[in-house]
Amino acid sequence: MKATRHPTKYLGEEYRRLVREHLNWELKELQTANEPVCKVDGRQVILLCANNYLNLSTHPKVVDAMLEATKKYGAGAGSDRSISGNMTVHEELDRRLARFKNAPASLTYQTGFMANEGLVPQLCGRGDLFVSDELNHGSIIDGVRLTKADRAIFKHKDVEDLARVMDEVAKHDPPYNHIWILTDGVFSMDGDLAPLPEIAKLAEEAGAGVYVDDAHGEGVLGEDGRGIVSHFHLRRDQVHVEMGTFSKAFGVIGGHITGGEDLRNFAYNKSRSWLLSGGVPPGVAAACTAAIDVLETEPQHVQQVWQNREYFLTAMQDLGFDTGNSETPIVPVMCGESKKAKELADFIWQKGIFALPIVFPMVARDKARIRAQLCTKHTKEQLDRAICAFEEGGKKLDLI
Ligand SMILES: Cc1ncc(COP(=O)(O)O)c(C=O)c1O
Description:
globular, binds pyridoxal-5'-phosphate, alpha/beta, 13 strands, 3-stranded mixed beta sheet, 14 helices, Aspartate Aminotransferase, domain 1
């Protein structure tokens, strides 16, 4: 018997459906380095949608480290780290990250997505439970989907709802063997923070593990950008996995986890994404180590990104924009329906400002927004231009 729909037909049909329903991604081409002013699709624009919060992707120390390590060790690791690709630069990066995080051990992965998708499914199986914030990142959701564990969802950042879930969990018969509470540290669509101390307390009462994805918190929160665990002054025995990525504030690429020695040993022996995929190129590992070095020795980058965030946020709020629940350099400019968010993004694009509209299904239908992301190297003049463009567009679209 033949399949009813052939791939040559349905791939195109599905794509056209996405286009019809305005759900398709339209890729823009960045033609220069990722800097506050750059060239995109032939147009010079102010970039307000980069994860490169500290602009380390072009920091001379980071770039030089990448070049030097590439010359010395070659363009690629030549193998999975689990086979013969575990180079000195990888081990050095793992050690340096653990030291930066004031933790016993870290393990770096090829990407943050691979860290979550590789480790999460190993933590729980049948007879276990994941408890997850409803707005967690897709890589956590996919990781959970790979298991046979039970799942419970709590309302976004809602400690009371989490307590309710944990009360229910306590009644489960037979008791769960392992329970993990999973949460983003900074939620990437809203720029708000997980109530991590309260989560840790409820976890402790239930004998559960705490797993925090700090992809957007690192480099921004805590002492010299050490992340959310440092920000809330939590102990390592309160947060068992602190996950992160080098692709955002660190300006390079690569995922990582931090915790105890047992976590590291468990993670690299069990994560299929780590075991069965190539190690990052040595230049990448060296650049990540250099980025850590910059964070340890040049605190001005973190200070400046916060100043820029305050400047932009205050100006936008003074204009009457709804900036949601932002607590970080991610500042949502709430627009309501998707159409308005797209129109505002198009309007500011015409004025030379590049910021991303975030629309359904990434957020609820009535919660479309433009997500502005501030970085260290934005100047006041650039931010003023962006604010002016938002003001004009906001008035035109009756948002302010
Ligand atoms: C919260 C969160 N976790 C994980 C990831 C994945 O990180 P990476 O880019 O290193 O794969 C992202 C990236 O979008 C993210 O926002």
